[in-house]
Amino acid sequence: MLEELLYEEESSTLDFKGKQYNFIGGDEPQKSELLKDILAFANAWRRADAYILMGVKEIKGSKSEVIGIEYELDDAQLQQFVNSKTQRPVIFHYKTAIIEGKKVGVIHIPVNKRPIYLKNDYGKLKKNVVYIRRGSSTDEASPDEVAQMGLSELSPNESIPTLDVEFADVKDRIQLGKVLKLKTICLSVPEEKDIPEARYCNKQAL
Fold this sequence. Notes:
The chain is of the alpha+beta class. It has helices at 2-5, 28-43, 75-83, 143-151, and strands at 14-17, 50-54, 56-57, 65-66, 93-99, 102-109, 131-134, 137-140, 167-169, 174-177.
């Protein structure tokens, strides 16, 4: 499957990096580049999983070139780094794969609950700002986009709640089904002129 991605262009589900992220020994601005990309894909409008391939150079209009990486990153360290800075956990995984005989770094980001943002400023990134992937670029989400994220479809593990109503005879404890047929009588009130006057009489006992 990863080999097939080489024939695709960068999008809201795919990004190519010619080199490994400067995470080990990098300063905050350098590490924030990795953090920004992960957040942007996690917040992107998509239905499919997203991938960041490190050690692959994009070739516009052609198959991307596999360059390979010199060193690997540690998934546990990345998990701790990212999720210690966000207001909710980000689901992602880092691994390496051999493509065309070369080692490539792969960050796999499934669909997440959104929005996800930083609790505090870090490097080039600002707290409470939602970064989002649009096509092949990363930007700050607009207030309308952030609002729509909260109203978007539920995750695959959730379902939309439904309410069923059924009638019953409480006294006799009999289920009457979900549909009731009622027989009614329509009564009309006569006009005031047609209502006879009330007469009162006193009867004396004989």
